[in-house]
Write a structure and sequence with these properties.
heterodimer, A: alpha+beta, Glutaredoxin, 2 domains, four-stranded mixed sheet, disordered N terminus, B: 574 residues, alpha/beta, Alpha-Beta Plaits, Rossmann fold, 19 helices, 17 strands
Chain lengths: 163, 574
C-alpha cells in the first residue's frame, strides 16, 4: 500500500528516481540495507532524510532501524559535508599514541571544533572509531586517504595538499 | 524431553536442554540479579548484570543468555562475581541522574532496586550524565533520555510486540541512546501511544504524562461538578497498584476510594461499554443485512485506532463508527446526565480512570466534543490514580465496598469483560445472538475467544448465518490480521482488536511490573467479575433500556449518531 510522506519533496524528481533505482537494484538480495546506504551515499555524498524514508518504505524496514544503522557507522554522513571530510581516529591505540594532540592541531589549523565545517566549505572535521591502521597510530583519514604516524607539526603540511 | 544436569552454587539442578543458566538457577530457587532481561522478551544480554562464574571458563558469562550444559559447575555468588556486578551497576549509575527522590519512577525503579540489592553505597566513577531534551510532545508519554540505560526493552516491545518500531538505538559507543529516527518528537511519528514502553522501561526514561494536578484542581474547585468513570480493566488492577496481589478484584473499594478523593459522582465506563455493544452490535447486523463493509472491526482501543490510521489507512472503512466507551461516556455525561441532574454541562468535569496512555490522546482528539464541550476533560492511568490515593493517604485495603452512583453506574458482566482480550467479541456475540434469533442464549460463555493466544478465531451459528470472528491483541498480531485482510484473505464478519497484549488489563497505563504471567491473573479476575454480575448481557442492562426509551430513541438513531459515533483520520507512516 502506498503511503504518502508528510513533507514536500526536497530532492528533485530525477534524484528520487535514482533513489528508487538503487532500492530496486538491491531489494531482493539478502541484507539489502547496507548496500543501499552505500549506494545512496555514493550518489548524494550524504544520506538525505527523504531518501531514507523511501528506503524504509521500499525495503519495509522501520525508519528508526535505518537511522540506527546509518548513525552507527561514522562513514555514513547524515548531513551534507564540506568538500573534504577529515576523520580523526579516536580509538584506544591512536589515543595512547597522541591522537588528542593531533586533533587539537587540526582544530587550530582549521579554526573549527570537532563536528564542524570550515567557513569556506573546504573541510569537515570529525572523529571516527577505529580505521584499522593501528600499526601507524595515530592516524586520520581525509576522504579515502589514510595518514599515519602523525605528530601535531605534520598537520599543516597535510592540509596544504588539499588546498 | 532432553534434560541436562548441572551444579549451581553446590546444588544439583536438572533442566530441559536449551534452558539458560538464569532459568536453571530460578528452578533451583536461586535468584540472579538482572536488568535488561524481561520475562516476555527475547534475550538481549546487553547489561551484563547477571554474570556468573562457570568453572573452566576464563571470563564471567551472562546467565540470561548462556545455555545450561551437562555437568556444568556454576557459581552465582562469589566475591569476584558480586564485585563485578557492583562495578557494572556503578558504571551505569555514573551516567544516570541521581535525582531519584523526584523521579516519576521513585520506588518503582528497577535500577534503584538493583543498586540496593547489590549494596551500592558509593559510585567510584565521576558523574557524567548526558543531557537530552525531554519529549513532552504528546498528551500520553514523556521521554527523558538522560535516564535511559540502553537496556533495549522498549525497543523489543515497540518492534516485536507492537510492530510499531519507532524507537531504536542510535549512534554508537558512549554516544549511543535509544531514540526515534532523526531524533524526532513522538508526536511527529507513527507512534500508537500505547505506552507498552512505559511498562517495560526499568527506569524513569519513559513514563506516562502525569495529569493528577489537573484533577486535584478540579476537585478543589467548588464550581465544578466532577464526575469520574472507571474503565472495565481498572477494577482488576487498582488493587495491585495499591499493593494487593495481582488479580485481586477491587470494584467496590475502587468506588469507595474515588468517593473519598472527593469526586462528586462515581460512574462506570462499563455502562457505556454496554451501550457500545448495543450500537456496535446493531452496526454489525446492519452491515450484514445491507451488504455493508465487512469484516466490521472494533474501535474501542485508541492505540489500535491511531495505529490503523497510520499504517492501514485504506482499511479505515472497516472500523466501527462507534466511539469508544470512554468517549460515549463523556458525551452522555455532558448531555443526558447534565439534563437529568439539572447541571449546566459547562460546570461538569469528566475524569476517566483508564488502563491506557493512548486514552489521553483520544480524549484530546478535536472531534471528541459532541456535547458542545470537550467530552472528557482529563484521563488518568491506573498508575496516576494510585498516586492520588497515596497522596490522600487512603488505606485502600481496608476501605469498605461501595456501589457506583446512578444512573451511569449500572452495568453487566458483558461490559466487565471488555477489559480482557476477546471480551468485546464475547459481549457482542451474547447480544447479537439474542437480537437476531429472539431466543435466550443459555450458555453465555464463548471460551474460544478468551485467553492469551495471539490470534483467536471462531465460527458461531446465529440464526442460519455462520458468523466468523477473529480476535487479536497486541499490535503485531493486529498487523498480521490486517495484512490478511488487505490481501483479501480474511472472510470474517467481525474482528476485535485490542492494542495491548492481553487487552486492557495489560494496558500501557497499568501498574509497573506488568508481564504476561500477571496479565493472566488479571484476566481471571475479569471473568470472575462477569460471573458475579446479575446481568451478563448488555441489552439486559435496565438503565441502557431506559436511556434509549427516554433519550436516544434507538441504536444507530439520529441522536446516537450525533453523540456516540465518530469518524477517523488517515495519517501517514512517515
Amino acid at each position: 500500500m502506498a503511503v504518502a510522506t508528510k513533507k514536500p519533496s526536497v530532492l528533485s524528481k530525477s534524484a528520487l528516481a535514482k533513489v528508487d533505482q538503487i532500492i530496486a537494484r538491491h531489494k531482493d538480495q539478502p541484507g539489502p540495507l547496507l548496500p543501499v546506504l552505500h549506494a545512496l551515499q555514493a550518489e548524494f555524498k550524504y544520506l538525505p532524510e527523504e531518501a531514507l524514508v523511501r528506503v524504509a518504505i521500499g525495503l519495509d524496514i522501520p525508519l528508526s532501524k535505518i537511522y540506527g544503522v546509518a548513525s552507527f557507522y561514522t562513514l555514513f554522513n547524515l548531513r551534507p559535508k564540506a568538500e573534504h571530510v577529515i576523520r580523526a581516529c579516536e580509538s584506544a591505540p591512536c589515543h595512547v599514541r597522541g591522537a588528542k594532540e593531533v586533533i587539537e592541531a587540526l582544530e587550530n589549523a582549521l579554526g573549527v571544533k570537532v563536528g564542524e565545517d570550515t567557513r569556506d566549505g573546504r573541510f569537515t572535521l570529525e572523529l571516527s572509531s577505529c580505521i584499522g591502521v593501528c600499526g601507524v597510530a595515530p592516524a586520520i583519514m581525509i576522504d579515502d586517504e589514510v595518514f599515519g604516524n602523525l605528530t601535531p607539526d605534520m598537520v599543516p603540511g597535510i592540509l596544504a595538499r588539499f588546498n | 524431553m532432553d534434560m541436562v544436569t548441572l551444579t549451581i552454587d553446590g546444588r544439583k539442578v536438572q533442566v530441559a536442554k536449551g534452558a539458560t543458566i538464569l532459568e536453571a538457577a530460578k528452578a533451583a530457587g536461586i535468584s540472579i540479579p538482572t536488568l535488561c532481561h524481561h520475562p516476555d522478551q527475547a534475550v538481549k544480554a546487553v547489561c551484563r548484570v547477571c554474570i556468573v562464574e562457570i568453572q573452566g571458563q576464563r571470563t564471567f558469562q551472562a546467565a540470561c543468555a548462556y545455555p545450561a550444559g551437562e555437568g556444568m559447575v556454576v557459581k552465582t555468588n562469589t566475591p569476584a562475581v558480586r564485585e563485578a556486578r557492583k562495578l557494572i551497576v556503578e558504571l551505569i549509575l555514573s551516567r544516570h541522574p541521581q535525582d531519584c527522590l523526584k523521579c516519576e519512577k521513585n520506588l518503582h525503579c528497577e535500577l534503584q532496586e538493583l543498586a540496593e540489592n547489590l549494596g551500592i553505597r558509593d559510585v567510584r566513577f565521576e558523574q557524567e550524565v548526558r543531557e537530552f531534551a525531554e519529549d513532552h510532545s504528546t498528551p500520553s508519554i514523556v521521554r527523558d533520555p538522560s535516564k535511559c540505560i540502553l537496556c533495549r526493552r522498549c525497543v523489543y516491545t515497540c518492534h516485536e510486540v507492537q510492530g510499531v518500531g519507532v524507537l531504536y538505538p542510535i549512534n554508537r559507543g558512549k554516544d549511543a541512546i535509544v531514540a526515534p529516527a532523526m531524533d524526532k518528537d513522538l508526536a511527529d511519528l507513527a507512534c500508537a501511544l500505547c505506552g507498552q514502553c512505559t511498562l517495560v522501561c526499568p527506569t524513569g526514561a519513559i513514563t506516562e504524562r502525569d495529569d493528577t494536578a489537573k484533577v486535584w484542581a478540579a476537585i478543589a474547585d467548588p464550581q465544578k461538578h466532577v464526575v469520574v468513570q472507571t474503565a472495565p480493566a481498572t477494577r482488576a488492577t487498582l488493587g495491585e497498584e495499591m499493593g494487593l496481589p495481582a488479580g485481586t478484584l477491587v470494584t467496590g473499594k475502587l468506588v469507595a476510594a474515588l468517593r473519598r478523593l472527593g469526586f462528586d459522582r462515581v460512574f462506570d465506563t462499563d455502562f457505556t461499554a454496554d451501550l457500545t455493544i448495543l450500537e456496535e452490535g446493531s452496526e454489525l447486523i446492519e452491515r450484514v443485512k445491507t451488504g455493508g463493509k465487512l469484516p466490521l472491526i472494533t474501535s474501542c482501543s485508541p492505540g489500535w485506532i491511531k495505529f490503523i490510521e497510520h499504517y492501514y489507512p485504506d482499511l479505515l472503512p472497516h472500523l466501527s463508527t462507534c466511539k469508544s466507551p470512554q468517549q460515549m461516556f463523556g458525551a452522555l455525561a455532558k448531555t443526558y446526565y447534565a439534563e437529568k441532574a439539572g447541571i449546566n454541562p459547562k460546570d461538569i468535569f469528566v475524569v476517566s480512570i483508564m488502563p491506557c496512555t493512548a486514552k489521553k490522546f483520544e480524549g484530546q482528539r478535536p472531534e471528541m466534543n459532541d456535547s458542545g464541550y470537550q467530552d472528557v476533560d482529563v484521563v488518568l492511568t491506573s498508575r496516576e490514580l494510585g498516586r492520588m490515593m497515596r497522596q490522600a493517604g487512603l488505606d485502600f485495603e481496608h476501605l469498605p465496598e461501595e456501589d457506583y452512583d446512578l444512573p451511569l453506574g449500572i452495568s453487566t458482566g458483558a461490559a466487565a469483560i471488555f477489559g480482557a482480550t476477546g471480551g468485546v467479541m464475547e459481549a457482542a456475540l451474547r447480544t447479537a445472538y439474542e437480537l437476531l434469533t429472539g431466543k435466550t442464549l443459555e450458555d453465555v460463555d464463548f471460551k474460544a475467544v478468551r485467553g492469551m493466544e495471539s490470534i483467536k478465531e471462531a465460527a458461531v451459528p446465529v440464526d442460519g448465518l455462520n458468523v466468523k470472528v477473529a480476535v487479536a491483541h497486541g499490535l503485531n498480531n493486529a498487523r498480521k490480521l490486517m495484512d490478511k485482510l488487505a490481501a483479501g484473505q480474511a472472510d470474517y464478519h467481525f474482528i476485535e482488536i485490542m492494542c495491548c497484549p492481553g487487552g486492557c488489563i495489560g494496558g500501557g497505563g497499568q501498574p509497573f511490573g506488568t508481564n504476561n504471567a500477571i496479565r493472566g491473573k488479571r484476566i481471571d479476575a475479569i471473568y470472575r467479575e462477569d460471573q458475579r454480575m446479575e446481568f451478563r448481557k448488555s441489552h439486559e442492562n435496565p438503565v441502557i433500556k431506559q436511556l434509549y426509551a427516554e433519550y436516544l430513541g434507538r441504536p444507530l438513531g439520529e441522536k446516537s449518531h450525533h453523540l456516540l459515533h465518530t469518524h477517523y483520520t488517515p495519517r501517514s507512516k512517515y
